Every structure is written in structure tokens, then in C-alpha cells.
């Protein structure tokens, strides 16, 4: 009996231990996911970010030269510094950067000569903790706060111990405070800021400074015993006692040097050791990642899910700070002034309106509500709604997708902003062309308003622009409809159907059309570029988010529509490089994926697998969603099928793994696919839980045979955001064979303008 009791107790202890371990979601994350990237082939274009969710500053090891967008590449074996970073894409330059680099034996400031070898076997990369041991036996550790980091440099015994602060590119200033064991300073690097801005930093050490000096990184000249320097690429170096173990706490501010000190004191002042910061950061991440708990998948699937969820929780970045009273305020990258309230930045809406922001509406609604306010503040400060903020407005890519965020938020009950101001701002966006890039205002606005499409070749990427403008106009119409604004309903009711003007019934493809109404000659649907953005006609055929049924009608009905969807996967994966003139990485990634013309590594086609739900073959959406998850994602350094893009490609995976996707932001609907786990619990901010329960789910059982929502039969191919917020259980009976008769009635299909099947969110 005693033996049985002991065995029982041991079992309970073991089970409790496993449960506790299971709740430690941060340990499933690999921040090296997607880091094995280069210009010709991107497997994510990520870097091993050490940060808190949506943190203002992040930290990363640096393998690339100062100013190189590929700041960390997995295949390299030398590190030259540990950076404060903000970069959201390798194709854009970073800003507000400085770095720290430890070294032994002799002082070397030149970034190319100071780089030191390491092995991935000596590297740990988690959201709350990064650690690497160099071949020279220096160990560097980093744990994050929202606006800073806690670092520790452990030098080998008996070795001279130096630390170099590099001011990165452009202007910087440093001041060494030997008696206080501290360095303060500022950097001014990056694009788009008003002249004279500064990112102020402070670095506080827990060990005495033995010797010191300043240097500059253009000619690598050193000034021993100098305590101050300002100018191009100015930096500092300090020396500690031989073989020291040094903790360094650092924080930065865009507002002032005193605010940087306040950020340091508030966020890291109580942490005597890096272990405390590490534990605090783990708790923050476990709370954030624990908003979605997955069970019943393989360890690899769980690691992929939480690694993607981590990436989906980095952007947009907080750009605000807390004053002495704890109230939010921020330096505006738009007008260069300090304002009260919230500001966010570092995202491109062309990528993120599709899944990253819809995911936030579900798991981060309070923050998302603040984001809506920040977008209107940005409009007031620079005269335009943001489209690509990095950190100010760049106007990159295409479309005017801020309105998608406003409409989607309102449809889901997030009503923290004035919809009249949002509509006025969008009207200004839609009727004018701004000074920065094609997505600042509307490229081809005159022709679009007069002819209903953007003509090609007069404007680059004209057909893609037409399609996305039409969707954005739908969002404006829908927001106006939800708030009863008849004026803007009338303004945008007609142009939201403009997608029809670039559809060629003869080829059954979207096409380029010139100002006289002639289709572009020598049409090849595999030709990239020209009237399309980073894709071809196979990819852009489906960008009618607001009216899939209207597209089905144009293409001659469900049979023709699903046959063309099938053809995306069955067509040869050949590439006509078109106006690009050569293979770009998106083309290479499509060929490598070996899924026909399906190019999941870029955004335009990512919603396509869910469109079978609109045309009486929902089971194919279930099949293909699972195939894409399984074939194109994992948690390794090769974990993505292309650019990760500020959380979008990760958010596609997170939503798809839940079993649904946001095909049409602005409707409040999610279109069903096939969940990747047996049980998923969404812990909502309102305190309720929504559970997706699919006990028979595995790689061989990907099809939904039947479903119940809170015990009642559920036959729809979509689910409303409002139903999720109520909490409850969506129980799915999964099968190895497709159910060909489920979800075929009109009321069971997701929203399209042409079927009008739409219910908006209603507050209780």
C-alpha cells in the first residue's frame, strides 16, 4: 500500500511538473527561427530578437556590418557587437542603434577586426534571454525590458577585459562617467526623422571602470582618457579589472536624457542580477504567449506555433514612454514634438493588415484600441495616415490600408476612436497623392477616380493598386455604414466594385489595362511585375477580399472558380521574371516551395487557400491550410517560406493553427480552415475562454466532418468575432475523408458584397 502511495505521489509530482513546464511557453520559442537568410533567398529575414512584447527597443547579436540590413545571418560564425535594434525588415535601414562588444587581451575598435568567432552550440536564443560564448571564452548574456536591457559580460580569468560602445552610422555623442561607472550619450541614425532628433541612452555598470577613452568608427582613431565626444560615428571604450564579470543595465529614450534615466530606474532598477530580469521577462512573455494555449500537437508543432506567436507579438512597436507620474507620452517621429498619449510604429500595413492586426484584435484588443488613436494622431501630426511607419511615414508598397484597421476594429467592437475623423482622414488619403512613396496618399488617384482603375503602364503595379484601392474603399464604405454616415457610404459605394474593371473575361485573369482601355499585350500569367506587385497574375487574381462571390460570378461560377484555385497548385512552378529582369528572392522561394504557382512567401496570395469556402468546396481549404502549415513552416533557422514581414507571415500561421483566418478584415468574420492541434484555448482579455476542441485531430484527420458551437450544430464556414468574445467551445469532429455536403448553403458561406451575408458586432 505504501509503495502504491509513493508511486501515486511521484506520479502527481511528475504530472504537476509537466503541467508547470507546459505553462512555460517561452521555452518553446526559438528566436533563431528564420535567421538563415540572405539577399538571394530569405527564410524569414529575422534576427534573434531579445525583447518584451511590442517593446520599444530590442536587442540582438550583430553579424553584419554597421548599416547592413542583414544584421544577423545564421550561416555566419562571427559576432561584432550586441545591438539595440528596431529593424522590421532587412530591406529597410535600422534606426536609433548603438552596440556593445566585449573583448579580451587588447583593445580593438574596428568592427571588422573585433568580430569574434562563436558556435551555435554555444548559443541560447529565447525571447527573455540570449546567451553566447565566444571561442575566446567571453560569455555575453542579455535579458530585456520594454525600453532597455540587462546585459552581463563574463571575461575569462586573468584576461584584460574591454568593452567597446559603437555609435553605429551617422551622428552620435558619448560621455563617460568613470566615478559613477556609467556611460551616457545619444545616437542619430536611421531614416525619416525631423532634423536634430536624438535617441538618448544610459549604460550603468556594476563594476569599477579601470580605464577609458573615446573613438570614432570612420577611421577607427582612439583618444585615450577622453570622456566626451560628439560627431560622426563617435563611441566609447572602457576597461574593467582582468577577468571581470560585469553587469550592464541600459535604457534609451527618444524624449530626453533624464527620461532615459527614468526608464532605466523604473524598468531595471530593482533587478540586482540578470537572473531577476530574465525571470521577469519570462513572466511577461508567458502571460502574453499564454493568451493562446495549444495542446495535443507534437513538440515540433508546439515550437513552431509559439515561435510564430512570438514573432507576431513584436510589431507594431511601442513608441511611447511613461513620465514620472506614469502617464504615457511620446516624441513624435512625424512632427518632432512631444505629445501626450500613445504612439506605435515599425510596420508596413500592406503586409500586416491581412493577419497581424486582425490577430491583435483578438488577443491584444486594449493595445489595438490605443493603436487606433495613435493612427489618428499620426495623421494630425504629418497630414497623412500611416501606411509604412519606420518610424515616421515612408509611404512604401501600395494601398491605403489604415482604413482596414479602423473598419476591422469597429466591426469587432473596438471603438476607441472617432470614426468621423477616421473617415475624413481616409477621404483625404483616397483623393490625393502624398509626397512620400506610392502608398502615401493614392498613386494614380486622378485616373482611378475618373476611370475606375489605375492605368498601366502609366503607373507601376497599376492593377495591384486598383485591387487594393477597391478593398480599401469597401472598408471606408463599411465603416460609414456601421456608424450611419450616409455621405461616405455614397462616396465609396461605387468604387468598392472597381476590381471588375481590371478583370479580363477572355483570359479569366486580372490584367494590366492602359488609359484607352486596352489590355496589356503578350499576356503571360506567370510574368512577374509590370501591373502587379511582387507577384504575377496567378497571385493577384484573388485580391478581391470584399467580394469573393462577385469574383466567382465574373469567372463563370463555382466550378470555374475552384478549378482555377486548383490550378494554382497544379501549374508548373516556372517563373517569367518580367519587368524585374532577373530572379528575385520571392521567385526563388516560390520555386523552392514546389507548390505550383502558390507563393506563400509573399502576402498577395496568403488568403487564397481559404477561398474554397466561398464556392462549395470548404474541405479543400481545410486540406490546403494544413499542407501550407506543415510544408512551409517550422521553428528552425530555415523556418519561413520567405520574408516574415513584421509579424504577418507568423500571424498567418497562428490564426491558421487556430483553425481560421481573416480573409476580409472589416467584416468581423474569420473563415474556417483546419486547426493544427487537438485542443486550443484562447484566453480572452475579457476574462472568458474560447476553446477549439478537436480530439481526433492529427496529420491524417484534417477534415471537419461536423461541428458544434456550445453544444449546438454549427454548419457555417466562418465564425464571428463576437461569438469568440462570448467564450465557449467550438467542438470539431475531424475525419480522414472530406465531408462534401457540409457548409454549402448560402447562409453558411462567408461574407461577400454580392451575397450580403454579414452581421456586425453588437455591444451587449
TrEMBL record:
Keywords: Calcium, Glycosidase, Hydrolase, Signal. Residues 1-20 form the signal peptide. This is GH92 family glycosyl hydrolase. Residues 28-253 form the Glycosyl hydrolase family 92 N-terminal domain. Monomer. It comes from Pedobacter endophyticus. Residues 752-764 have a biased composition (Polar residues). Residues 743-764 are annotated as: Disordered. It comes from the Bacteria. NCBIfam families: aman2_put (TIGR01180). It holds the Pfam family Glyco_hydro_92. It is an enzyme of class 3 (hydrolase). InterPro entries: 6-hairpin_glycosidase_sf, GH-type_carb-bd, GH92_a_mannosidase_put, GH92_N, Glyco_hydro_92, PNGase. Its cofactor is Ca(2+). GO terms for biological process: carbohydrate metabolic process; glycoprotein catabolic process. GO terms for cellular component: cytosol. GO terms for molecular function: carbohydrate binding; hydrolase activity, acting on glycosyl bonds; peptide-N4-(N-acetyl-beta-glucosaminyl)asparagine amidase activity. Its EC number is 3.2.1.-. Residues 259-735 form the Glycosyl hydrolase family domain.
